[in-house]
Inverse folding.
C-alpha cells in the first residue's frame, strides 16, 4: 500500500509518515497542493491523506481534481476543520473519508486500509495459503504454526504477493507499492528482499521467480 501525505505542518507530516511506515505502509510527504497534484500524476497512490488548509492549490481543489483525474486514488481528508458543514463540503468535493484533528493513529491506519480495500476484490484481513498465514491487522506471519518475524518491507512484499492470488507482480510494481519515492529503482532491493523472505518462510519455497516477468506466491489463497 502506498500513501501520499499532504500536510504543511512539518513535524506532524513527519510523525504521520513514521507511523505509517511502522505499519508497513509506504508513505511520501509533500507540503503544498501544487506538489501534491504533481506527485499524484506521477505515482500510483492508493490513498492521499490530505489537509485542507495548505499552501498553493487549496486542499478542497486538490481533492476535486483527484476525484476527476484519478478516480481509483482514494482521498482521506485529515484536517482541523471539524464542523458538520466542513465535513459535508469535504465529501462534496470528492473525499472518501474525513478525519478531524486531533486524531488517534490506530484509527487512521484502519481507515486507510479500509479505503485500500475498496479498490480490490473483497479479501479477508487474514490470508492463508501453502501453510503461510498472514494477519494484516496484527502484522503477524506464521508458517505451519511457526511464527515468522519479518521486517516491515518483507511483510509488505509478502502481503502484496499473497493478495495477488497467484498473479505475477513485477519488481517495479513491488517497488512502487512497498517503498516510497526515495527508493532507487536500479538497486537489487527487491531481489534481496525476496531472497530473505524465502529463507525466513522456509522450504518448500512459496515465492517463485517468473523469468522476465517478476514474482508470484505459489499457492491458492485459503
Amino acid at each position: 500500500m502506498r500513501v501520499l501525505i499532504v500536510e504543511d505542518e512539518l513535524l506532524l507530516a513527519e510523525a504521520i509518515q513514521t507511523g505509517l511506515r511502522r505499519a508497513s505502509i509506504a508513505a511520501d510527504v509533500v507540503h503544498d497542493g501544487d506538489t501534491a497534484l504533481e506527485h499524484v500524476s506521477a505515482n500510483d497512490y492508493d490513498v492521499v491523506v490530505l489537509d485542507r488548509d495548505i499552501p498553493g492549490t487549496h486542499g478542497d481543489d486538490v481533492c476535486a481534481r483527484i476525484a476527476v483525474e484519478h478516480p481509483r486514488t482514494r482521498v482521506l481528508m485529515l484536517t482541523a476543520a471539524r464542523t458538520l458543514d466542513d465535513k459535508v463540503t469535504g465529501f462534496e468535493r470528492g473525499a472518501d473519508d474525513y478525519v478531524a484533528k486531533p486524531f488517534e493513529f490506530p484509527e487512521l491506519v484502519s481507515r486507510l486500509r479500509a479505503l485500500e480495500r475498496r479498490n480490490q476484490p473483497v479479501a479477508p484481513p487474514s490470508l492463508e495459503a501453502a501453510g503461510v498465514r498472514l494477519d494484516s491487522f496484527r502484522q503477524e506471519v506464521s508458517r505451519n504454526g511457526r511464527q515468522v518475524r519479518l521486517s516491515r518491507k518483507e511483510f509488505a512484499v509478502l502481503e502484496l504477493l499473497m493478495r495477488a492470488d497467484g498473479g505475477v507482480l513485477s519488481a517495479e510494481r513491488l517497488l512502487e507499492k512497498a517503498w516510497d519515492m526515495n527508493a532507487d529503482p536500479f538497486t537489487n532491493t527487491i531481489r534481496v528482499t525476496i531472497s530473505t523472505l524465502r529463507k525466513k518462510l522456509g522450504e518448500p519455497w512459496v515465492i517463485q521467480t517468473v523469468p522476465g516477468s517478476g514474482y508470484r506466491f505459489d499457492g491458492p489463497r485459503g
